[in-house]
Design brief:
The complex is a heterodimer of chains A (532) and B (231). By secondary structure, chain A is α/β, with parallel strands linked by helices. Chain A is built from 14 helices and 18 strands. Chain B has a domain of 159 residues: 2-Layer Sandwich (Mago nashi protein), CATH 3.30.1560. The chains are: A alpha/beta (532), B alpha+beta (231). Chains A and B meet through α3 and β7 of A and α1, β3 and β4 of B.
Chain lengths: 532, 231
């Protein structure tokens, strides 16, 4: 069987994967796997911006402190310091690659935004489509680099590892389904970079694109890597509720500009939950909406900005206004139906300061990675910066260390013997739906012991069914994603069940208080090891 | 039996990579570029064997430098500003639209107000660079020299001038912090450009080294006679 050999196997084509690819391309051949088309990643949908100290009149200490405050005691301060101090240089590199952030109309200075949790204006943005602009610039650069091969419609199935004990285990490459041909390819690489983005699709409602099925985290866990803090899932308060629009986020800036949250009967409820009403912190707004929906049995609430002039709305929210209009919603005349949605995973594959996972030859960056930056809650617009900084650090590690390693062992090719064509695809679609509803209803914004126990039981059963299915039938992309979703769901539930307190993004009705004495610590999971 | 779990085969195999000539050429160029870039970024520490004790101590100290300079020309006034701290160099350039106001910064100073306390400054370009180690070490030695001269009251520099017309000599203000020592040097752009005496020549060297870090901004290779030095 043919083995595809490359120096760097990059799984994922968002900001972390592509920046890493661009930086290691001078060292050898880089293969970037995109499970869909290369532009389809969470990066593309990032509306807000990228936080970075942009002048000496801002200060590193201020950005560090804002990040620590948001992280509710679980940020690793030395890593936050790295992030913040290296950020400006990495952002400059992004600008040098051709990213066009918004500038003032007169002069060439950048327009800086201010978001919740930041004490000064330090958010660079490109309208309300910052991620798309970044993606455009880095993808253009990657496409023109002869050492980088972008492979569309290639979905990784599993990492291939050596047979060493877990402490010395090496990642040798990956098995990959080529959806164009339906065949499974075996890739061998000197270093594998996991940059597959987040896990949002594990929940019924998410702001993430359809590709965010936690593939990197699930594969890393199965391979034996350490996974950290999976209980901390950030929910965006306002995602559009519409049958034809998946994952469309209504920016929080709209509340900042006067939009009001209302029940379907028109009652503005936020004043019951926080003195700042609509301007309350993100987690409180999300919890309030969740409470209203569960209490009144509604599928959504309304976000109403129709009292503002149409020109004002069009000027401030051009992308959102246009998209809503396409869907038949004129938000200058009627309220927008919204639900909270899984937005960002603060946990992930445990990574050191060089982007290394606990397995040899396996690096990770972006939302897939846990670096210690975000703690129990992520500061707005820090995620793109984290991806940039740690993709760079992983590339430096590749240059200084990984290139000096001997060639990896040759992996065993994929073997399809004994498998047949599935005749029961409905099992996959049914289980997919069941898992996502279970996670939404039982492991969402408000958790409890009984909900988590019930969720664990259902997900464990689903895992057994899909494991059997996986071994009997040929793999499809739906099956691969479902298998990963179930794996990630299990990791979230186990982590959430383990933490007997409420902190940051993890809120449980049975332990509503923060408990620094016992729980000011990270939750670490590793296959075949007790949770710690 | 499927090989779907992490498995391996014993024995090592070397990878025989085949590349097209174009890819090979690209690789060679990229590796060359990376090498050049790497050494430029990391810098090379300067030799300390010829330095005295005070100079060696200076190399271990924190350095901050804040430079503001402005001069007029036929079409108006231009300015450049640099701030070095934490081994990061912030750079900014632009135009001065009319006479500078003396207003102080607002109480709610925010990050986007970088160097905008004077609303007459119109920023054209702003960049940030990692300060190369070797350049920073050299700047520390230059800073030490300038501070020593100030302490000995050995600085004979003309006063700064206005910067609104071609005939004005302009102004340059250099604030230096090295360890616990802080000094402010102020004179005219034309005096620094002329390097008529040793203190002015030292200021010229220090400013041109700072100007030489990173790509040119505002398409200004020289600022009224002060060029960009590469170290």
């Amino acid at each position: 069987m043919h083995i595809n050999r490359t120096d760097f196997l990059v799984i994922g084509s968002g900001i972390a994967g592509l920046v890493y690819a661009l930086k290691v391309a001078s060292l050898g051949k880089v293969t970037v796997l995109c499970k869909s088309i290369p532009t389809e990643s969470s990066t593309r949908y990032a509306q807000g911006g990228i936080a970075s100290v942009n002048s000496p009149l801002d200060s590193f200490q201020s950005h560090i402190q804002d990040t620590l405050d948001a992280g509710a005691g679980l940020c690793h301060e030395e890593v936050v310091e790295l992030l913040v101090k290296e950020g400006p240089i990495r952002v400059q590199e992004l600008i040098d690659l051709g990213t066009n952030f918004d500038k003032e109309e007169i002069g060439g200075d950048y327009k800086l935004g201010r978001e919740g949790g930041h004490s000064v204006r330090r958010i660079l943005h490109a309208g309300d489509a910052t991620g798309a602009e970044i993606q455009r610039a880095i993808l253009a650069e990657a496409n023109s680099n002869p050492n980088i091969e972008l492979m569309a419609n290639h979905i990784a199935i599993d990492l291939i590892t050596s047979k060493h004990a877990i402490e010395n285990r090496e990642v040798l490459g990956a098995y990959v389904l080529d959806e164009n041909s339906g065949s499974v390819k075996t890739f061998s690489a000197k270093c594998t970079m996991l940059a597959t983005g987040g896990v949002g699709k594990v929940y019924l409602y998410t702001s993430n694109p359809v590709v965010a099925t936690g593939d990197g985290i699930a594969m890393a866990y199965r391979a034996g890597a350490q996974i950290a803090n999976m209980e901390f899932i950030q929910f965006h308060p306002t995602c559009l509720y519409h049958p034809q629009a998946h994952s469309f986020l209504i920016t929080e800036a709209m509340r900042g500009e006067g939009a009001v949250l209302k029940r379907r009967d028109g009652y503005a409820f936020m004043k019951e939950y926080h003195q700042k009403a609509e301007l309350a912190p993100r987690d409180i707004v999300a919890r309030a909406i969740d409470d209203q929906m569960k209490r009144f049995g509604d599928d959504f609430v309304h976000l109403d900005i129709s009292h503002k002039p149409r020109d004002f709305i069009v000027e401030h929210f051009p992308t959102i206004f246009a998209r809503l209009l396409e869907l038949g919603i004129d938000c200058s005349k009627e309220p927008i139906p919204v639900v909270p949605a899984a937005h960002y995973c603060c946990g992930g594959v445990l990574s050191d300061q060089r982007g290394r996972s606990s397995l040899h030859r396996l690096s990770t960056a972006g939302e897939t990675a846990w670096t210690g930056v975000h703690g129990a809650n992520r500061l707005a617009s820090n995620s793109l910066l984290e991806a940039l900084v740690f993709a760079h650090r992983a590339a430096v590690d590749a240059e200084e260390n990984i290139m000096n390693l001997p060639e990896p062992e040759s992996p065993e090719p994929w073997d399809n013997l004994g498998t047949g064509q599935s005749t029961e695809e409905v099992l996959v679609s049914h289980t997919w739906d069941e898992v996502r509803r279970t996670m939404w209803n039982l492991v969402g914004i408000v958790r409890s012991n009984s909900r988590l126990t019930l969720a664990q039981r259902r997900v464990t059963r689903a895992a057994e069914e899909i494991r059997d299915y996986y071994w009997r039938f040929r793999v499809t992309s739906d099956l691969i994603e479902l298998r990963n979703l179930i794996q990630v769901a299990d990791l979230i539930i186990r982590s959430a069940s383990f933490r007997k307190e409420s902190r940051g993004l993890h809120y449980t009705a049975d332990y509503p208080q923060r408990d620094d004495e016992h729980w000011k610590r990270d939750t670490i999971l590793q296959k075949d090891r007790p949770l710690s | 039996m499927k090989a779907r779990k992490a498995e391996t085969v014993s024995g090592l195999h070397s990878i025989n990579r085949r590349k097209s000539p174009r890819a090979l050429l690209g690789s060679v160029l990229l590796v060359f570029a990376l090498g050049a870039c790497s050494s430029a970024n990391r810098g090379i520490s300067i030799s300390t064997k010829d330095l005295n004790a005070e100079q060696r101590k200076a190399l271990q100290q924190e350095l901050s430098i804040d430079v503001f300079t402005a001069r007029g020309f036929l079409g108006g006034s231009e300015y450049e500003r640099y701030y070095l701290g934490d081994s990061i160099l912030w750079r900014e350039c632009g135009n001065i639209s009319s006479k500078r106001s003396s207003e102080t910064p607002a109480d709610s100073l925010e990050g986007d107000q970088f160097l905008k306390e004077d609303q007459n400054l119109k920023i054209r370009e702003r960049r940030v660079e990692q300060m190369p180690e070797r350049a920073e070490q050299n700047l520390k030695l230059m800073a030490l020299k300038l501070i020593d001269r100030e302490e000995r009251d050995d600085s004979q520099t003309p006063p700064p001038g206005p910067f609104y017309s071609l005939a004005d000599p302009g102004m340059i203000e250099i604030k230096i912090g090295l360890g616990s020592k802080h000094r402010i040097l102020i004179t005219s752009v034309d005096a620094v450009a002329d390097k008529a005496n040793a203190p002015l020549a030292d200021m010229h060297t220090l400013f041109s080294v700072i100007r030489g870090v990173g790509p040119t901004i505002c398409d200004s290779k020289t600022f009224f006679g002060i060029s960009r030095s590469r170290i």
